[in-house]
Amino acid sequence: MKNKEILLVPGPTPVVDEIYEALASETRGHTDARFVAIYKRAIENTKKLFNTDGEVYVVAGSGTLAMEMAIVNTVAEGERLLVISHGYFGDRFTPLAKAYGIEVDVLQAEWGKRVEIEAVREQLASYTYKAVTVTHADTSTGVASDLETLIPIIKAAGALAIVDGVVATAALQEDMSKAYGGNEAYKIDIALTGSQKAIGVPPGLAIIAFSKQALAAREALETVRAYYADIHNWRPIMDNPANYFATPPVNLIYAYDKALEIVLEEGMEKREARHIMYGRAVREALRSYGMTPLADEEVAAATLSCILYPEGVEDAAFRSNLASRGVIVAGSLAHLAGKAFRIGHMGNTTPDQLEKAIRLIGEVLMEQGVQVDIEQAVDILHQELNSYVK
Ligand SMILES: Cc1ncc(COP(=O)(O)O)c(C=O)c1O
User: Fold this and answer.
1) Ligand 1: which of 96, 138, 141, 167 to mutate, judged by most atoms within 8 Å of the beta carbon?
2) 55: Cβ below 6 Å to ligand 1?
3) Distance 390 CA to ligand 1 centre (A)
């Protein structure tokens, strides 16, 4: 099935034919040995993706379920969680944790900026936190977190480091064996994601990895206030997918298995470099149209960008005119609604698709009375892309 449109919302992302083919494979029973072998391989490859010697869980659900699994399996009622938020999705951890009776403090950045590191240090010195959440890239603002600085600070304070990689995993490295700052004690404890972003599978899978320390935190809790989200209930299935707890989404697992093959074949180092180039290339090309990314380049995410409209461009008309030409981008959230759009540039998106998008965005801007130089923008895009693309 060839895609008819170029889906550049910040997830779901374009699904390539190989993955569609896997998705459309014959549905088998979830205990069928042929399916069990594929699920097993997908679980093993998820461990490779995060380079973890801990455990991974791949279950039906979305990124929000993975967020919930992270919190409910490690932080008890009455314990304290610190949320480092760079936007709407960082904020989501607050009501989620409060629903479980967890005490939550939030450090919220102005949209488009990062939380000051000094503020994180001060907050961690003020209370004992069981865990700290960091949204690797926030999909509302296009701001990426600085894990290199944050993980050592969080771990030095004795908290678990929970990384929401929903719009980062498989594009930016989340290597759970990496000793941040060269210290073996400073590692990511939990990384979580959904299937529909840089992995390039349709929505429907919650994916989460726990370090040994995070697993010890789960054991120390004994019981948790969850059933579907309790990793104890899933462990027998992750150990041997022939076991049953709740019916797995068989066809999504086929697709995920294929997607992981593609990711691991490219390799995370190359994949990260490619995404960094994509991000720069798209933003530079759009800058030449007089459009301004919300986030400064030093803090901008490689996977998606939130782009402010130039004077006179009307959001709904811009996006619908672009959609009628076959390129789909997203509106912005909260106070930025109508003032900016969001464009994804991740997963299996190709340079050709990005070029087409830049050309068509130029056409739509011209239609709305903004004078732009489309050929120059395309040249800029390619200059940036050529610094990487094979
Ligand atoms: C960074 C981030 N975290 C969490 C979520 C929630 O994921 P889902 O919508 O799959 O539940 C999203 C969704 O876009 C996200 O971008």
Assistant:
1) 167
2) no
3) 30
Model pLDDT for residues 219-268, shown as the tens digit of each residue:
999 999 999 999 999 999 999 999 999 999 999 999 999 999 999 999 99
Tell whether omega for the bond before 12 is within 30 degrees of 0, i.e. cis: yes
Single out the residue in 266, 281, 298 at which a domain terminates: 266
Task: Find how far residue 362's CA is from the centre of its chain.
Answer: 28
Q: Are residues 154 and 205 in the same domain?
A: yes
Decide: 62 in ligand 1 pocket, CB within 6 A: yes
Residue 303 in contact with ligand 1 by CB distance below 6 A: no
CA gyration radius for the chain? 21
In a domain, 365, yes or no: yes
Mode of pairing for the β-strands spanning 103-108 and 340-344: unpaired
Q: What is the DSSP letter of 330?
A: E
Do both 252 and 281 map to the same domain? no
CB 348 less than 6 A from any atom of ligand 1 = no
- Establish whether residue 194 lines the binding site of ligand 1, counting it when its CB lies within 6 angstroms of any ligand atom: yes
Give the structural domain span for 325: 267-386
Question: Count of domains in the chain?
Answer: 2
CB 168 within 8 Å of CB 303: yes
Q: Domain boundary at 231, 250, 266, which?
A: 266
Instruction: Give the tokens for residue 134.
Output: 């960091």
174 and 49 assigned to the same domain: yes
pTM for the model stands at 0.98
Is any ligand 1 atom within 6 A of the Cβ of residue 167? Answer: yes
